[in-house]
């Protein structure tokens, strides 16, 4: 949640073995899956993961863990977060998404396309590109033909999807998130 708004949703079908996991392990599996999916956004940030299962919110602090839980704990250790319980009755959005098949389309994340970017934001991206050393290094590699997974379009770095690479410098990423999720 960012300022009370969900930032993204993620889901996948459980494997045969996963369907037999205990409820708290399924909750934790969901957390592990989401953190893997959003790793590049979450590393280096402090955040809270809200789960609707009380036991799941404490599972990683138990003195004895199963081998599976220990593997998950090792994976989760690279993130700066904590699990917080949020009762299902108060978690209407997640509850609705997990229970209503007709809302399956909402579970998919649609990245912001370049066509939806206003001129002001396009200029901000270009301005912030110059302040981001990592981005400048990638741009040089693209221009020299060393990277095939990126290309430059309208002075902006693009990657598969096509998705726009947004510089880390400044408040631009936060501004884009607010613009996309507050509308």
UniProtKB/TrEMBL annotation:
Q: Please, which domain of life does this record's source organism belong to?
A: Eukaryota
Q: Cite the Pfam families for this sequence.
A: RT_RNaseH
List the SUPFAM superfamilies hit by this protein, alphabetically: DNA/RNA polymerases
Q: Where is the Reverse transcriptase RNase H-like domain?
A: 4-79
Segments traversing the membrane? none
Gene Ontology terms for molecular function = endonuclease activity; hydrolase activity; RNA-directed DNA polymerase activity
Tell me the CDD domains matching this sequence: RNase_HI_RT_Ty3
Q: What UniProt keywords are attached to this protein's entry? A: Endonuclease, Hydrolase, Nuclease, Nucleotidyltransferase, RNA-directed DNA polymerase, Transferase
- Protein name (database record): Reverse transcriptase RNase H-like domain-containing protein
- Protein's organism: Hibiscus trionum
Q: What is the lineage of its organism?
A: Eukaryota, Viridiplantae, Streptophyta, Embryophyta, Tracheophyta
């Amino acid at each position: 949640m960012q300022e009370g708004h969900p930032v993204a949703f993620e889901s996948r079908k459980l494997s045969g073995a996963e369907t037999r996991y205990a409820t708290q392990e399924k909750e934790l599996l969901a957390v592990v899956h989401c953190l893997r999916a959003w790793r590049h956004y979450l590393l280096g940030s402090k955040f809270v993961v809200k789960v609707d299962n009380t036991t799941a919110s404490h599972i990683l602090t138990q003195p004895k863990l199963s081998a599976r839980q220990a593997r998950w704990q090792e994976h989760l250790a690279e993130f700066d977060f904590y699990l917080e319980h949020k009762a299902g009755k108060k978690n209407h959005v997640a509850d609705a998404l997990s229970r209503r098949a007709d809302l399956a389309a909402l579970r998919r994340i649609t990245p912001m396309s370049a066509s939806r970017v206003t001129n002001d934001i396009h200029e901000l991206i270009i301005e912030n590109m110059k302040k981001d050393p990592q981005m400048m290094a990638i741009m040089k590699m693209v221009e020299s033909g060393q990277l095939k997974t990126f290309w430059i379009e309208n002075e902006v770095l693009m990657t598969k999807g096509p998705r726009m690479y947004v510089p880390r410098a400044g408040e631009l990423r936060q501004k884009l998130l607010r613009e996309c999720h507050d509308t």
